Amino acid sequence: MDVAKILNAKGLACPMPIVKTKKAIGEINSGEVLEVHATDQGAKSDLTAWAKSGGHQLLKDTEEDNVLKFWIKKA
């Protein structure tokens, strides 16, 4: 998957992963993909809801070694 930008939000607690994701998605073009790495377990539901409310598409999410990874396609 082609990724335009990778955001490291590891170690940040709510609401910072969302705040940082919102800023990062503003730095890429429509149709491009943002990859987000987070360790806050709340980020899973938060980022899913945020992407949906913003019209963005959550392409995939995984978890490995306690790191949540999300791929969000900008609307």
Automatic annotation (TrEMBL):
CDD domains reported for this sequence: SirA_YedF_YeeD (cd00291)
Similarity section: Belongs to the sulfur carrier protein TusA family.
Organism: Virgibacillus necropolis
UniProt name for this protein: UPF0033 domain-containing protein
Domain UPF0033, first and last residues per copy: 7-31
PROSITE patterns membership: UPF0033
